[in-house]
Specification:
heterodimer, A: alpha/beta, Rossmann fold, six-stranded mixed sheet, four-stranded antiparallel sheet, 39% helix, globular, B: mainly alpha, 14 helices, 77% helix
């Protein structure tokens, strides 16, 4: 039985002047699933995320979150509705310590940001919750380090940790493991999955280049090429579809992945 | 332990500064005490300016607008026979808050250079208004400001100098301390942290659910009110108001004070305005081209010590610790 859709895009197109970045994309993200969006560079993945999170208004079509039209309503309102995201390129507050980074998310969630004279340092509740989240992400020891001085992987984790601190229903992760060493990739994925579970996130949308990660962690894979949905299926089905896989990953990657598939190197699949 | 030692150090520093400020009119010359009054006023003004610049990341080149609004509110209030300084300050906060809300609603829709130019434009608009509407504003000549009543006492029988040294000095000192304390509360509050988040990364801040334009607007209003408060506090000292208060040159001075002291530090702007006020006073009396010196000073600070005086002190302390 299929669960109810939480986020839908219906016939969404996005043009940048003449250039068509998204061409009639229809998809839905259901409750309780991890869905990955894959595609070669320039396929429109980030544009899709930006449209899905209300940053960009689609040229045509509509985006619905829990049945409500959210096309282009802007990041702030969408966050309040229960949708969070992390970024492909680093988005951090360089002058914030790791602790402050998580605190600001909690404060915003609780609607306390506007309190003019209430000292943050005296708020034990916010402090405890922030520390708990940092614990989950393995950043507790570094809570007083300025985020600009953290290693790349930790910066990525902090970005995700602050998004999770908002207690969203759905989170969109735009290449959470890009720019991070291979050994760190799995660590980041595992941390963020267990943290999502603990914070009660219903669905995760993952944009990812690393096919090992995509195939090991997703319930469903949506392949995009030239702004169109090329395939929308389970990893097992997609693996059988050579044509799509080759288009999406390019010839070189395709060969690499298939040879590893054949040799069965991904037997230790972490799929849940 | 280190934290406790640091805290006691801070308290000691506060007490020493407090005692010096309290005794200043008794030990220093009358002239220097008068300059001190100018410092109190500009310190409040730049505290407001830096809430927008250092904490929110918006550079206003038009804060002279609020300085002038504060100053002219005092002049107009006295014309309407309102002499109670407390009431005048209250009116100043209301009027400047209202004007900041209107101007800010337009300006905060933009950032970077667009924001700066807009604030500049509004300040110069007020400047032309003050110059042209002679019958209301006194034009270039400005308006005379009398001695206000403090806490209900009429001081008109006392000579002006005596009033300034013995009464007004302490009044201004207390207002400045209260304003500084309130600003400290603001920048260490939830609101202050939200402003810093907006400054550091507006896109990420928005994705954390922070309504960035509304917060910028609130910061603009508070900032404008502070600068107006500074302007209002200054005019009983100089005894008159004139259009130069709203000229962009005044805004430039706020910027220079803030950069000089170090805009990334809470106390930076205050220290900057202290150094600036005394330097200006000394230089003006010995050197005709004192503005040339300030131009050079600004260039020097930006190139050699971008952290300002506070940044310099900070790195010296760090060096000392590292050396041991």
């Amino acid at each position: 039985m299929q669960k109810a859709a939480i986020l839908n895009a219906s016939d969404v197109s996005k043009f940048y002047k003449e250039f068509c970045a998204l061409d009639g994309v229809t998809l839905e993200i259901r409750q309780g699933e991890i869905a990955s969006i894959i595609g070669p560079n320039g396929a429109g993945k980030t544009t899709l995320i930006n449209v899905l999170t209300g940053l960009l208004r689609p040229t045509a079509g509509k985006v619905y979150f829990k049945g409500q039209d959210i096309s282009g309503i802007g990041p702030q309102k969408i966050t309040k509705l229960g949708l969070a995201r992390s970024f492909q390129l680093l988005h951090i507050f360089p002058e914030f310590t790791a602790l402050e980074f998580v605190k600001i998310a909690i404060i915003s969630r609780q609607g306390k940001g506007i309190h003019l004279f209430s000292s943050i340092d005296k708020d034990k509740e916010v402090k405890e919750e922030s520390e708990e989240i940092l614990h989950m992400f393995g950043l507790y020891e570094k809570r007083d380090v300025l985020s600009k001085n953290l290693p790349q992987g930790d910066k990525k984790l902090l970005d995700i940790a602050s998004a999770l601190a908002l207690h969203p229903e759905i989170i969109l992760l735009d290449e959470p493991t890009s720019g991070v060493s291979t050994s760190e990739k799995n660590r980041i994925m595992e941390i963020l999955l267990s943290a999502s579970e603990r914070t009660g996130i219903k669905s995760i949308v993952l944009v990812e280049h690393d096919m090992d990660i995509v195939f090991s962690f997703s319930h469903r894979i949506i392949a995009i090429h030239h702004g169109k949905v090329l395939a929308d299926s389970t990893p097992a089905e997609l693996e059988k579809n050579d044509e799509v896989v080759c288009t999406v990953m390019g010839q070189k990657e395709c060969f690499k992945t298939f040879s590893s598939l054949l040799s069965g190197s991904r037997e230790g699949s972490k799929r849940k | 332990m280190a934290f406790k030692a640091q805290l006691t150090g801070k308290i000691m520093f506060g007490i020493v500064v407090g005692v010096i400020l309290f005794l200043f009119p008794k030990i220093a010359s009358q002239h220097f005490s008068l300059v001190m009054l100018g410092f109190f006023a500009s310190a409040i003004a730049v505290l407001g300016f830096n809430l927008l610049f250092g904490y929110t990341g918006l550079l206003s080149i038009g804060h002279s607008l609020f300085f002038a609004v504060g100053a002219y509110t005092v002049a107009f209030s006295m014309r309407s026979s309102i002499f109670s300084m407390e009431l005048i300050l209250l009116i100043t906060l209301l009027v400047s808050g209202l004007i900041a809300a209107l101007v800010g609603a337009i300006c905060v829709r933009y950032t970077d250079i667009h924001f700066s130019i807009l604030t500049f434009a509004f300040a110069m608009l007020l400047y032309s208004f003050i110059v042209k509407f002679y019958y209301v504003t006194g034009g270039d000549d400005g308006l005379r400001v009398l001695m206000p009543h403090l806490l209900g006492f009429n001081h008109s029988a006392v000579p002006k100098m005596q009033f300034l040294m013995e009464t007004y000095y302490y009044y201004a000192l207390i207002v400045a301390c209260l304003a500084t304390w309130a600003m400290w509360r603001i920048v260490t509050s939830y609101f202050g942290l939200s402003l810093k988040a907006i400054r550091d990364n507006p896109v990420k801040a928005e994705y954390l659910g922070i309504n960035i334009s509304r917060y910028r607007w609130f910061a603009f209003i508070i900032s404008g009110m502070y600068t107006a408060l500074g302007g209002a506090l200054l005019v009983p000292v100089i005894g008159h108001v004139d259009p130069t208060l709203s000229h962009w040159f005044q805004s430039g001075q706020f910027i220079l004070m803030t950069v000089l002291g170090g805009f990334t530090y809470f106390l930076g702007p205050i220290l900057g305005s202290l150094v600036f006020t005394y330097l200006q006073d000394t230089l003006m009396s010995v050197f005709q081209y004192w503005r040339f010196f300030f131009g050079a000073l600004l260039a020097f600070v930006v190139i050699v010590a971008p952290g300002g005086i506070m940044g310099g002190i900070d790195s010296l302390q760090k060096k000392k610790k590292g050396g041991v």
